[in-house]
Amino acid sequence: MPLEEHYALGLVLMGMAPCAPFVPALVAKGKGDLGFTAAFMVLSAVGTVVFMPLAVPVVTKGLTVTMWMVVKPLLIMVLIPLLVGMAILRASPAFAGRLLPIVKKTTGIATVFVGVLCVAVYGKGLLSVGGSLAIASQVAFFTVLTTLTYWVAFGMPHEQKIVLSVGMTTRNIGAAMAPLLMVPDMDQRAVIMVVLGLPLMVIFALLGVRLFGRNAATDAASARQVSARVS
Does domain 5-220 have CATH number 1.20.140.10? Predict the structure, then answer.
């Protein structure tokens, strides 16, 4: 796909930063395993911290990142909140249960706020992507991520497969954006490409949750019918 260089840079950086901080809310909607989600988020955060500083200088021109540039957004948006939540759950499961609805609502409000803020700051740039193949490339990118990561998870139950699908479909925008914001005079098209990924990844993740959740319910019903006939 003949994508402009700076749009391609933004897409490459997004490809290195899986798993958005609001993944648990989407997984819960898809009837996924939240314990598996926590493990996946830790693994993806650690993998991003190790991988990005090594890979970015190799696959990009004139762009390098330090480990701290990658670690900082992951610590603030993923690891610290995750550790706090795990500590609360371990200390008082009842209190954690009462907090869960509040956390879900807060996550939803924060996601909407970030989306509105991105549109307000980068609105003109987002309108200029038409005809650049930026949207087409991201649609192809998220289509592959959403479907492939679910269907190739052979032997895993739906509760874990949906975690992989949602976790890989969503991107950690903070980690992807960090290298771009640290470079003076960075072309805004690279930043716009990352910002464009925010609404698209939410749309594709929700579509995947709905589609695969429906398939999982159908498969479960078929399994119950087969079991009833056998018994």
Answer: no
